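It is worth pausing here to work through a concrete case rather than discussing structure prediction in the abstract. The textbook approach is simple: state the sequence, then state the predicted structure, then interpret. We follow exactly that order.
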Amino acid sequence: MAKNIIVQPSPLGGRGVFASKSFSPGEELFTVSRPLLSSLDGIRLHDTCVNCLKWDGDATIGVQETPLESTLKACSGCKIFKYCRKECQREHWRLIHKVQCPFISKQKRYQDYPASVRGTMDLLLMIPNLQLPQKQAIGELLSHIEERSKGGEWETTQVLAVAACKFAKRPDNDAAFALSLYCKVMTNAITLVGKTLDPLGLCVDLFVSCINHSCDPNVFFVMDGQALSARCLKKIQEGDELSISYVEPTNPTMIRRKELKEKFFFDCKCPKCLNEGNTPEDRFQGDSSTDGPAKRVQDEAFNTLFSVRRGKVLPEKIISELKRALDLCQRSGFFSIERQPIPSICSDLYVELMMQDRHDESFEHVFKIYTETDPKWYPNFHPARLAHTYVLARLMKYFCFQPGREPQELRGHDLHLVYYGLLLEIESNLNKSHGPTHSFAKGVRAEINMLREELQRDAIVSIHRELPSIMTAFRGLKKQITR
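Step two, the predicted structure:
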């Protein structure tokens, strides 16, 4: 049990996690060194160490200094899981892979199953070797199996659970148990992410699963490999219940409540939801008489965004569909630039554009998030804000080494110093966002030190004197880009 944190009955129902002392914003609440279960997405199995979760995230923004994929070594048995070093392979073997490997070796399409199904397969293999308290805690996890059985995906859910059961060589009469486990994984999983919040897979932890939802949370998570840390988002008093958001908290109330009902089967009654229509997340531009047409535009744009995220749009059409949804919102006049779904569309767009080496186009969307969206919704130390700033910083570095590929708006700006200034912004918030020992914090500080060497020690004082005006001019580009 984490120090100064207790699990007890919650007024929201079931169990909750409570603070037994006060915490300040940015303070660490607890760290789980390794969740009970972690499962990589299929597309990450080839380029991510399955044990420590090192991933060549720089490849997504065109700066691939040390290609991790070329150094990963596959298990000689299953040939599916890969490791960045021998120590990782030995540790993973000891933890679970000595049990997994014989089963995976006989599976021709193991990597094609969703991470949630492969996670259920792992749980079925792990359970016989778990301690009694862990088995009891798994038994207490919510599955919402009754509610799921009434949904349109139930037949697929049953088929996948049976596949997990057969994979683990469990008898047919264990199919109901496998189905229950699969539903528990889907209900209690949180997303595994890299240093710039790129999704890598999912994980389930028995302690973390006790934390309840709020659309106005007081806790955020950061991950460092397998380690999962909870940090304080706003002032927490002794006796306060800890809460995280199970969905995107900046979405309008109607969208949040619909997603919570469909995925987690409850009607959210947090203060933010009970104030529907009167929160910044819900407000449209213009008078209230336009709300009907505005909601129709909102629904169409969100439907496009969710279709892309659920894999229902052909890969070659993703960018055009996202641009169409963005254009729909902007032309309507109902949406300010920070009003969802514009920020989410911009976020997905910049990732897709970077993957296609269209970095000049991606800049506009990252820049909008940096200058308009993040300052509206997040405190300076929020990890999402730092992740976006880091992507923007690495874009500046990319343009420094690819002269002529930068957008027209950036020409005439000292991008080397803008890159440096953005890193300094990140560095000033790292102790609150990630903590001083986090690998992201160490990496950013190492980049800053290397850049200082390049800028020459005798010039640092004058550079720091000029930097505020350089960064002000850079941020001033929003008048050209975001309007």
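Step three, interpretation. Residues 368-483 form one domain. Confidence is low (pLDDT under 50) at residues 58-65.
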